[in-house]
Design a protein that fits this description.
This protein has 2 domains: 119 residues, Probable inorganic polyphosphate/atp-NAD kinase, domain 1 (Rossmann fold, 3-Layer(aba) Sandwich); 154 residues, Tumour Suppressor Smad4 (Sandwich). The chain contains 8 helices and 15 strands. With 296 residues, the chain is an alpha+beta fold.
Length: 296
């Protein structure tokens, strides 16, 4: 393996933690004998173009430094190339890093782990979800949670993540269960009234909410969590349990497994790894061993 590797950095991740984490991780990698280049960009499209260029030019690994958005962008650059992917978690959510077992906000430790894996040739292939030509590592969200995202993204104030708390309260007051059509592995269409439907390649989203607690990055299947029709009072009781994953024991929650999932519902958008994908209907396919990961 070449000793030339690339850090793919979101310097603004985590309120500036991304830039600091990149410097720390780069120092750890250089101490291990690697030559480290850095790629950023003027917006996501430019950043992705630069990352793809680094991969095409033969970088030994592409290491994302940031949160789930940066990890997601890096995946678009490495899938199908054989270039190893590494992740230094420095964002707010860091759910794909959780799924991979990477340390959170410990860039020196992450850098040393990645360096050790690269030097020893230790890697593993993990599954990814695919929606058209778009890839994701953690969860495709739709329903109540995606509507909170929609509302939060439209709000100019308050700033930061607090606006999503405000958006959740506002959306909860207005929310009604939605008629979904769910198709698993090309089978019969299931028509259900649902509060939300989450398609998990990994277990969590939203910064540690274990919406699909049994999801496994290496089994070739999604876990599909359906929170059925319920009152606002029930939702308020059930939703806090998502941090431990015990919500799946509630009668209103159903978990299914499939390699392909089609979701259809009116006026509902999908977010994958926290990033906007588009309106339903959407079809997600689990692709086994889609990316080679270096780390633990």
């Amino acid at each position: 393996m070449t000793s030339e590797i690339t850090l793919f950095v979101n310097p603004t991740a985590g309120g500036g933690r991304g830039a600091r984490a990149a410097r720390t991780a780069a120092a750890a990698l250089r101490d291990a004998g690697f030559h480290v280049g850095t790629v950023t960009g003027d917006g996501p499209e430019d950043a992705l173009s630069r990352a793809r260029s680094a991969v095409e030019e033969g970088t030994g690994a592409l290491i994302a430094v940031g949160g789930d958005g940066m990890a997601n962008l890096a995946l678009q650059a490495v899938v199908g190339t054989g270039t190893p992917f590494g992740l230094v978690a420095a964002g707010t959510g860091n759910d794909f890093a959780r799924a991979l077992g990477m340390p959170l906000r410990e860039p020196a430790t992450s850098g040393r782990m990645i360096a050790d894996a690269l030097k020893s040739g230790r890697s593993r292939d993990v599954d990814l979800g695919r929606i058209g030509d778009r890839w994701f590592g953690a969860v495709l969200a739709s329903g109540f949670d995606s509507r909170v995202n929609d509302r939060g993204n439209r709000m100019r104030a308050p700033l930061g993540r607090f606006k999503y708390d405000v958006a959740m309260v506002a959306e909860l007051a207005a929310f009604r269960p939605l008629p979904y059509r769910i198709t698993l592995d090309g089978g019969a269409v299931r028509e259900v009234e649902a509060t939300l439907v989450a398609v998990g390649n990994g277990p969590s989203y939203g910064g540690g909410m274990r919406i699909c607690p049994g999801a496994d990055l290496t089994d070739g299947l999604f876990d599909v969590t359906v929170v059925g029709e319920c009152s606002r009072a029930t939702l308020l009781r059930v939703f806090p349990r998502v941090y431990k994953g015990t919500h799946v024991d509630h009668p209103v929650v159903t978990v299914m497994r499939a390699a392909s999932v089609e979701l259809a519902a009116e006026d509902v958008t999908g977010y994958a790894d926290g990033e906007y994908v588009g309106p339903l209907p959407l079809t997600a396919t689990c692709v086994p061993g889609a990316v080679r990961v270096v780390g633990p």
